[in-house]
Fold:
Amino acid sequence: MISKKIIQIAQLSGVGLAGYYVGIKNNHEETAKTIQVMPGLPIFGTVSAAAPFSDGSTFVTAKDRVSQIMKYGFPGLDHVRSYDDFVLSYDRRTRVPHWVFEHITKDHVKKNDEIDRSKCDFAADESIHPFFRSQNSDYKGSGFDRGHMAAAGNHRLAQKDVAQTFYLTNIAPQVGEGFNRHAWNRLEKHVRKLTKVYDHVFCCTGPLYLPRKESDGKSYVKYQVIGANTVAVPTHFFKVVVGEAPDGSLHMESYVMPNQKIPDETPVANFMVPPETVEKAAGLLFFDKIHRSKLSSINGRKV
Structure:
């Protein structure tokens, strides 16, 4: 009788131990699954991998090139994507960038006979989810130009570099006559000329949607949308630039231009604004790795 009870207890203990070990095993498996699907830190979770970059003499990996471009900090970390020669943050709601960052030198902007802009076509970025992707059809018949944020003329090291500036992730609707083809183009040329003064030029460009007071005395943020994908038409555009001089000094320039026809005689300097103005309007922090007191000048004035 006693031996029978002992056998029953042993059987029950075996079942209990088996259940315990099965539970432990399942718990470990569930924990492993949880760990596997956890997102990484924002900078790694949102920055898309870029192809290797070569400057013609030294080989630079994609990671190193992103580090060069973003040397002085990310303005934000919302849907950041890296291309071969520029980095941007894409706004899935407006279908235009939040911001686009470039690092340019004399070599990037000098004439290169191997580069043929006429071979470049505007194209949707297939890596963007179809829900949030802009298409060429959105711009057709809209009356707006497909305006580059990272200027094609800033990327003449390789054909693939200039071609990537034609992805619609780098594009926003701009008034053509008097703005994209004239005033905005003059600002882009000004930034390129800075490479004659500075060894390195870091340029951040993007859209703004600024409020305007209406007849009822109240201020509203209003902007047009175009196409089936409702691509937003910004009211203004900004450029915030930092030039790194041979002596290591840093010089900042900050611009805001209204997305409208601007008289040809208007100097580019007329659109200079304090960088804090742009930051507050855009909800971004530019060059946050540089304390403003470390800048030698802002908009031509000593700090």
